Amino acid sequence: MTVGLVPTMGYLHEGHASLVDKAVSMCDRVVASDFVNPTQFGPGEDLDSYPRDFDRDCALLEEHGCSMVFHPSVDEMYPDGGGKTATYVEILNDMPKQLCGKTRPIHFRGVCTVVSKLFNIVMPDKAFFGQKDAQQLAIIRRMVRDLSYGIEIVGCPIVREADGLAKSSRNTYLNPEERRAALVLSKAVFKGQEMAEQGEKDARKIVKEMTEMIEREPLAKIDYVSAVDGVTMEPVETITGTTLFAMAVYIGKTRLIDNFIVEVAK
Ligand code: AMP
User: Fold this and answer.
1) Whose CA is closest to atom 8 on ligand 1?
2) Is the Cβ atom of 259 under 6 angstroms away from ligand 1?
3) CA separation for the pair 206, 191 (Å, rounded)
4) Residue 116: what pLDDT?
5) 114 and 139 share a domain?
6) Which atom of ligand 1 is nearest to the CA of 16?
7) For residues 215 and 222, is the Cβ–Cβ distance under 8 A?
8) Residue 16: CB within 6 Å of ligand 1?
9) Residues whose CB falls within 8 Å of the CB of residue 205, separated by 6 or more in sequence, listed in order
10) What pLDDT, on the 0 to 100 scale, is given for residue 266?
11) CA 159 to CA 144: how far, in whole Å?
12) Is residue 163, in this structure, part of any structural domain at all?
């Protein structure tokens, strides 16, 4: 019997549902975890205000054929209390320092720690992660390789709203004006994709075009727009192999991310 794990922080939407659907299609039993993990939030981030609706999550999971939901308390996951732990799983190369790691220095340590714990508790054969969090997916793949977890990591494409905005639990923070402004992320992604499809190989030109588009939106403040190697997360200037174009942009107080990948033969 194969067991699939879909780790989530709850407040589920069709992006999460697509992971469950993929897991159901590949596994005999699917376990979703629903846990807002305190160790991946830095001081001043939105841990306390992060949206939660466990009953609605359960209904969505059941509808999509999920067999079981793991919904631990913070103290169950971190018995030292207060969401603290003495033991972390941390990648020590530059991968977690790039992109989101620049403004969220402890984020990926928290992600690796909680995902390791979920792997140890659920013992899945396969685990499903969204390409929406591209750096997270690359880091989890690396952790699984380095720690010899015999778990297959399955990446799933970004699910978007009809108008292009990548679905995110954090979209609920946006007021109507911000919701409109947030479209600048996906518009920049589509523009960058189009340039790459038309043969542009200079990653800096694509990043510049995307940056300028976002800068024209008055409610947007760029955290980063970058092109990196899709596996190592090292910055690149030219598209070769797997190149990840990723961005984090504040719309008002809400930090949103989006990305796309370009694959070319090396
Ligand atoms: P979260 O609950 O935001 O931590 O996300 C849990 C999982 O769902 C992660 O693997 C995310 O990458 C994935 N996910 C979140 N939003 C989307 C989306 N719009 N499309 C695909 N996967 C997503």
Assistant:
1) 16
2) no
3) 8
4) 98
5) yes
6) 8
7) yes
8) yes
9) 195
10) 73
11) 25
12) no
Q: Which helix (H) or strand (E) holds 261?
A: strand 254-263
Q: Is the CB of 9 under 6 A from ligand 1?
A: yes
In this predicted structure, what is the pLDDT of residue 265?
84
| Cβ–ligand 1 contact at 132 (below 6 Å) | yes
Which residues make beta-bridge pairs with 33? 7, 70
Taking each continuous run of H as one helix and of E as one strand, the counts in the chain are 9, 8
**CA dihedral over 266, 185, 233, 37, signed as positive or negative:** negative
Q: Which residue is associated with the tokens 């004006």?
A: 177
Are 129 and 175 within one domain?
no
Q: Tell me whether residue 266 is in a domain.
A: no
104 Cβ below 6 A of ligand 1: no
CA 139 to ligand 1 centroid distance, Å = 15
Q: What is the pLDDT along the chain (266 residues), one digit of tens a residue?
A: 999 999 999 999 999 999 999 999 999 999 999 999 999 999 999 999 999 999 999 999 999 999 999 999 999 999 999 999 999 999 999 999 999 999 999 999 999 999 999 999 999 999 999 999 999 999 999 999 999 999 999 999 999 999 999 999 999 999 999 999 999 999 999 999 999 999 999 999 999 999 999 999 999 999 999 999 999 999 999 999 999 999 999 999 999 999 999 999 87
pTM for this one?
0.98
Domain containing residue 53: CATH number: 3.40.50.620
Ligand 1: centre distance to CA 129 (Å): 7
Please give the C-alpha separations between residue 56 and each of 33, 59, 65, 100, 248, in angstroms, as whole numbers: 14, 5, 15, 29, 28
Task: Check if 16 is active-site.
Answer: yes
Where does residue 18 fall: left (phi above 0), alpha (psi -120 to 50 degrees), or beta otherwise?
alpha
Same domain membership, residue 143 and residue 31? yes
Does residue 130 belong to any structural domain of this protein? Answer: yes
